[in-house]
């Protein structure tokens, strides 16, 4: 791990440190393009903004907001906005860089960006949440736009927040700019299939990986960490395909059912209560989650969850990274040496940005597609991208993560080289 930037001090397992070591691993496969590789190790722009609002009790609160555009060589920036009390500039930088790699891996005409506010949204009233969202949008308004950088939902943000962002940007520019964000409500230029797209992409890549390693989904035992937008949808699709979702962990705790959890009841329950105390499950200690006898693990919460220790204990044959950056580099080595196949975040969870791309295209053309068409196109793009990555991994005898970086970084750096340096 190696960083030349003065404004972050990454450690080996921190998000930016993890990303840098992933870039270092792909260098030997970049040939002459490696000359341009420093461009991957520094964001193009990182904006830090103050977000002051008047709270319901009359006090003034200040929150720290970020928007990072990691690389715009292949197109406008694309990436979500996260509301979380522990968001940092370093985390947003890493998330923006993974967006650059992800968009290139599925060959979408985007660069990578990400945003965040250091706030606990569960402690805000609806009115305070709207104020934070609108002020943040105004502050980052100088660098976002339908052709500049297009935010989307991430942890703790949703279609309503995207509607406020779209409205704020539109008010500030005297337009109705539906294409400035994706993940919007359907009647505001949102796309059918977007809400489930990331979980669906996790399922599609997981289905293909399972087929290739001869793992039958019928009766396969699945554990899911994080039961929000990504984790719950992926769980439902695996259950529909005949798998048994035996364990789920979220911020409220860990639950288990040997016969498979009843997702039709669990999903609505978890939305309002979290998974803990779900009737029809046994409660486990959080750390026991990593020792379970399972076939497939879907981390779909936050970064840094699969540590070296947990990687050594894991029984799964297949890890599907719904979350961004869930596996630290040392754990990656351990999983590879133990023969555990990891479908990395930068392809596994690319379904969300792929349907965001469909949404953006539909907004520009003002012509909307039906859900079957969206799901079929998503399936095709994900399978095609995974096949290319698999071939690259076989050719060089490297992990799927390094292969995804190889495919993506070749596209990013070729664009960089063709554009040339200005001036
Ligand atoms: P979400 O807010 O809908 O859900 C997050 C889930 O993680 C919740 O169930 C929460 O309880 C759980 N969680 C939080 N802290 C936890 C902890 N310490 N231990 C266990 N569980 C914990 O968020 P989401 O949109 O589903 O995003 C989840 C992950 O997927 C993130 O890494 C995000 O960057 C990534 N992702 C999301 C999208 C998208 O379209 N939403 C796209 C690509 C990647």
Description:
This protein has helices spanning 15-26, 89-105, 126-140, 159-173, 194-212, 229-240, 263-273, 308-313, 329-337, 345-348, 351-365, 371-396, 400-419, and strands at 45-54, 60-71, 77-84, 112-118, 149-153, 221-225, 244-250, 253-256, 282-284, 296-299, 318-320, 341-343. Helix 1 packs parallel to helix 2 (89-105) and helix 5 (194-212) packs across helix 11. The mean pLDDT is 97. The strands form two sheets. A seven-stranded mixed sheet has the order 9-8-7-6-10-11-12, sandwiched between helices. A five-stranded mixed sheet has the order 1-2-4-3-5. It has 13 helices and twelve strands. By secondary structure, the protein is of the alpha/beta class. The radius of gyration is 20 Å and the shape is globular. The longest helix is centred in the last third of the chain and has 26 residues, at 371-396. Among the domains are: 43-175, Rossmann fold (3-Layer(aba) Sandwich); 197-348, Rossmann fold (3-Layer(aba) Sandwich). Bound molecules: nicotinamide-adenine-dinucleotide. The site of nicotinamide-adenine-dinucleotide has 23 residues, from helix 6 and strand 7.
């Amino acid at each position: 791990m190696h960083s030349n930037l003065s404004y972050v001090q990454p450690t080996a397992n921190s998000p930016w440190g993890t990303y840098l070591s992933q870039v270092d691993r792909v260098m030997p496969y970049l040939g002459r393009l490696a000359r341009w590789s420093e461009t991957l190790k520094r964001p193009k722009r990182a904006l830090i903004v103050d977000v002051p609002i008047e709270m319901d009790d009359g006090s003034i609160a200040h929150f720290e907001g970020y928007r990072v555009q990691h690389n715009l060589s292949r197109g406008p920036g694309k990436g979500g906005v996260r509301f979380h009390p522990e968001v940092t500039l370093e985390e947003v930088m890493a998330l923006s860089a993974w967006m650059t790699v992800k968009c290139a891996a599925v060959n979408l005409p985007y660069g990578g960006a990400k945003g965040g506010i250091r706030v606990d949204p569960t402690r805000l009233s609806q009115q305070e949440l709207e104020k934070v969202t609108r002020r943040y949008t105004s502050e980052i308004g100088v660098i976002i736009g339908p052709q500049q950088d297009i935010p989307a939902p991430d942890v703790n943000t949703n279609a309503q927040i995207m509607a406020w962002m779209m409205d704020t940007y539109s008010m500030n520019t005297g337009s109705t700019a539906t294409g400035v964000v994706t993940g919007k409500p359907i009647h505001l230029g949102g796309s059918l299939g977007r809400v489930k797209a990331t979980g669906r992409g996790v399922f599609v890549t997981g289905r293909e990986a399972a087929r290739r390693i001869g793992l039958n989904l019928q009766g396969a035992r699945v554990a899911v960490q994080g039961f929000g937008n990504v984790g719950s949808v992926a769980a439902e699709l695996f259950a529909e395909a005949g798998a048994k979702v035996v364990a789920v962990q979220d911020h409220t705790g860990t639950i288990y059912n040997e016969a498979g959890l009843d997702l039709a009841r669990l999903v609505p329950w978890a939305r309002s209560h979290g998974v803990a105390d779900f009737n029809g499950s046994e409660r486990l200690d959080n750390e026991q989650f990593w020792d379970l006898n399972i076939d497939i693990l879907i981390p779909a919460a936050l970064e840094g969850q699969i540590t070296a220790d947990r990687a050594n204990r894991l029984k799964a044959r297949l890890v599907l990274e719904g979350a961004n950056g869930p596996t630290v580099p040392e754990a990656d080595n351990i999983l590879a040496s133990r023969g555990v196949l990891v479908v990395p975040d930068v392809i596994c969870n690319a379904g969300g940005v792929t349907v965001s791309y469909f949404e953006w295209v539909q907004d520009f053309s003002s012509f909307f597609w039906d859900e079957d068409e969206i799901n079929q196109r998503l399936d095709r793009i994900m399978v095609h991208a995974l096949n290319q990555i698999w071939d690259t991994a076989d050719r060089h005898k490297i992990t799927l993560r390094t292969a995804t970086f190889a495919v993506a970084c070749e596209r990013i750096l070729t664009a960089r080289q063709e554009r040339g340096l200005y001036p």
